[in-house]
Design brief:
single chain; 249 residues; alpha/beta; Rossmann fold; Helicase, Ruva Protein, domain 3; 2 domains; seven-stranded mixed β-sheet; 11 helices; 7 strands; elongated
């Protein structure tokens, strides 16, 4: 938990939203440092225990809710920025991270623990990019803070974990008319990861080889490249070319 605190650089002026406080180990550290702490716990029993433990702590509020569906504005009521820290269950990690990255009221910083392979996907560079890489890096700059071995937990899981920090952008890295349409294109591009990108677009967008290849060339991308080699900027150019073509047709 100390690594998460360090990575989040929590100060006495910060509002911190904690997802998944569990037994409250990190919550206690946050309460000693941050100006305000809002801890969201899904489990009814743990939430009650935390409410009892932090009763009387003016800077701590326990919320019994699901972070995947709870109204974000009801959690963070101040107008200023806030930081998100989390020790997420693996099954809920990606939906929660994605929800807060895409939210109208985004955190300025996110620090959380996920499986190491998920962390590597989030932080990948061209050559190893994936749909998750693009979806994360559109909204922020992610980096792996530290690996966490199974022996750090009781009971020990079968996978190695990693702590990820994302410095969230004020606005997406690309100017997009429609984020939804952008990801329709990107999902199509990664529909067959080991194939050349023109084949992926043919299959994913139901267009001819000629159209796919010309669209890529017009975007300055070699049709024979693999989708994992494309950078975020490449996807942005391809999206703009796709939108240009759609407007003409």
């Amino acid at each position: 938990m100390g690594l998460i605190m360090q990575a989040a650089e929590v100060t006495s002026e910060d509002t911190v939203l904690e997802i998944g406080p569990g037994r409250g180990i990190l919550t206690r550290e946050l309460a000693r440092t941050a100006a305000d702490v809002v801890a969201v716990e899904l489990d009814d029993v743990l939430s009650l225990r935390l409410t009892q433990e932090f009763h009387g702590e003016a800077n701590v509020r326990i919320v019994n809710a699901d972070a995947r569906t709870v109204d974000i504005d009801s959690l963070v009521t101040t107008d200023g920025p806030y930081k998100l820290v989390a020790n997420l269950p693996y099954y809920a990690a990606l939906p929660i991270v994605r929800r807060f990255l895409e939210a109208e009221r985004k955190p300025s910083l996110m620090v959380f623990m996920v499986q190491r392979e998920v962390a590597r996907n989030m932080t990948a560079i061209p050559g190893d990019m994936s749909l998750l890489s693009v979806a994360t890096q559109l909204y922020g700059a992610p980096r792996i803070v530290a690996g966490v071995p199974p022996r750090a937990f009781r009971p020990a899981p079968k996978v190695t974990s990693a702590i990820v920090r994302i410095d969230v952008f004020d606005r997406p890295a690309l100017e997009l008319d429609s984020v939804e349409d952008f990801f329709v294109l990107v999902r199509a591009g990664f529909s067959a990861r080991r194939k050349q990108v023109h084949n992926c677009l043919q299959r994913g967008m139901d267009i001819s080889r000629e159209v796919a290849e010309q669209m890529l060339r017009d975007a300055g991308i070699d049709p024979k490249r693999r989708p994992q080699t494309l950078s975020l900027e490449d996807w942005g150019r391809l999206y703009r070319e796709h939108r240009r073509r759609s407007a003409v047709e």
